[in-house]
Specification:
Order of helices and strands: HHHHHHHHHHHHHHHHHHHHH
Mean pLDDT: 85
Helix content: 55-70%
Radius of gyration: 33 Å
Shape: elongated
Distance between the termini: 81 Å
Number of strands: 0
Largest sheet: none
Strand content: under 5%
Length: 524
């Protein structure tokens, strides 16, 4: 068979495997959708129960009208998500969080409507600013703005039922919440959330003052106005402080990894990373290189670069248990493995995955990082020791490849899949191109071989990465590797320095010859 025929067959197999993966992604999984529909139905019933409070004067028309109102609101939100944020449908935990927060806001509005306050003041009962901050941290700023508007619409629908409806408190509440969301930009620490809340309170105070001067906000005198301003500032700061306590609870309750949590892991030198620097310095350096490669490649396809970077920084934690058995930490590790059977060596290498999971869970790292620990090898084979075992096998002895495979699972996300590619190409390049590149295309060929091999091995079957994205990943990794292993111009030597060195050498040679002559004369 010609070499071109073999290449064509491999390309055909890759196209087939990627096509099957993409068709599986488009296929409707009714087992998943049945659960989602059940959750939506439960949410609708709870919302209906809240809207019907205090359950007096109920008629079929009232119940049907409220049910229709909920259906219209849910349809509007569904069309919004399908049109602008289709990826959010895949994360049911965040959808439940949004639904629960919406229920709390509507319940607070109902409580305010049925309270004995002379003038309806929703800002006392509806924690919209708090949830706006939560949306910004858990989702992103753009969705937080949209979600806050959705919640404000729901609150307004409840407020319209009040005997005396005053839209100004709802407007003030909305402006303060949106301002707080805007001030979450470039948030690097959860302790700054108090300042975010204070900014929202300041926006509310400014709006109240403007409305008072315009004659729209009713206050008996300047003292009452000052009290409104002071209360708005204090309430904003309190809600910001409350967010610092609520977010960790929500992260644990809904098993959500926020960008704020990832930033804290990355910026504050985590004790595990410090331990890795001490126990496995070679692994730590390898990890930093792979994290840099992965982040650039993930951002090239529009993925979560921060999650990728942090996940890779912790993906090799298990190597700290037996660092001396890994070449990057101990160049003479081959001598240790030579004393062991290939099967035992493979077990030690493979165990760094399970050891990493145990360490991550012990130190309460986010669960999203576990996908990088298990997925960067997936179910691939420890080929070096597998081939070594086959070489040492006795006649008639069968060596099973399954005994030399990692336990998996395979990468579940695009970020984890890209980390698997970057991890392999960084290690391969360090081994293959340590002496420099022989040809500019060597890097691209190596990266392409890695991606092809993982595709043929089915390592990307459980994630939604596409062919176009893999092409972008290849380009990004080639650029990153080229920055490390680029051709270097040979520096020219100073010709005068060369002549001076030759003169010194000749002078030294002449002195040696003269010394030999004198010694010869003296000995005669």
């Amino acid at each position: 068979m010609a070499a071109q025929d073999i290449v064509d067959q491999r390309l055909e197999l890759i196209e087939q495997r990627l096509g099957e993966t993409e068709r599986a992604q488009r296929r409707i999984d009714w087992s998943v959708w049945s659960v989602r529909l059940a959750v939506v139905g439960t949410f609708a019933l709870l919302m209906l129960a809240v809207l019907l409070v205090p359950y007096t004067g109920l008629t079929p028309a009232v119940v049907g009208g409220n049910a229709l109102l909920i259906a219209c609101f849910a349809a509007m939100y569904l069309f919004y998500v399908l049109r602008f944020r289709p990826a959010f449908l895949q994360d049911g935990r965040k959808q439940i969080l949004f639904g629960a927060s919406l229920l709390i806001c509507v319940a607070g509005a109902q409580l305010a409507r049925n309270s004995e306050l002379g003038l309806l003041r929703f800002e006392w009962f509806v924690p919209l600013m708090l949830f706006g901050i939560v949306y910004a941290v858990v989702f992103d700023q753009r969705f937080a703005m949209d979600a806050t508007l959705f919640a404000a619409v729901a609150v307004t629908l409840v407020a319209l039922r009040a005997e005396r409806f005053d839209p100004l408190p709802v407007l003030v509440l909305l402006v303060g919440s949106l301002t707080a969301v805007l001030f979450t930009n470039n948030l690097r620490s959860r302790y700054k959330l108090a300042m975010v809340g204070l900014a929202g309170g300041a926006a509310q105070s400014a709006l109240i003052t403007a409305l008072y001067l315009a004659g729209a906000w009713h206050a008996a005198n300047w003292i009452e106005l000052a009290s409104w301003i002071g209360v708005s500032l204090a309430r904003g700061m309190v809600l910001g402080v409350l967010a610092t306590f609520v977010l960790p609870v929500l992260e644990r309750l809904f098993n959500i990894t926020t960008d704020l949590r990832l930033i804290e892991l990355l910026e504050r030198e985590h004790p595990l990373l410090q331990m890795m620097q001490e126990r496995a310095p070679g692994t730590y350096q390898h990890t930093r290189n792979v994290a840099n490669f992965t982040k650039r490649a993930v951002e090239a396809i529009g993925g979560n670069g921060l999650l990728a970077e942090v996940g890779v920084m912790f993906h090799d934690l298990g190597k700290m248990v037996r660092p001396e058995y890994f070449t990057e930490n101990e160049p003479e590790s081959k001598l240790l493995h030579d004393r062991l059977s290939p099967m035992m060596s493979a077990m030690i290498i493979i165990s760094h995955v399970s050891d990493g999971i145990l360490i991550a869970r012990k130190h309460k790292l986010p669960s999203a990082i576990e996908d990088f620990i298990t997925g960067h090898h997936g179910t691939s084979t420890v080929k070096y020791f597998y081939y070594k075992a086959k070489q040492q096998a006795k006649e008639g002895e069968t060596i099973l490849e399954s005994q030399f495979r990692y336990p998996g699972p395979k990468p579940q996300t695009k970020e984890a899949a890209i980390s698997a590619i970057a991890d392999h190409v960084e290690a391969t390049a360090r081994s293959r191109f340590a002496g420099g590149l022989q040809h500019p295309d060597d890097l691209r060929n190596m990266v392409r071989e890695t991606i092809t091999a993982k595709l043929l091995d089915g390592q990307f079957d459980e994630c939604d990465i596409t062919r176009q994205e893999l092409a972008k990943v290849e380009d990004s990794l080639v650029k990153s590797l080229a920055a490390m292993y680029h051709h270097r111009v040979k520096y020219l030597e100073d010709p005068d320095a060369k002549r001076r060195a030759e003169a010194v050498a000749m002078r030294e040679k002449y002195r040696q010859e003269q010394a030999q002559r004198r010694e010869k004369i003296l000995t005669q």
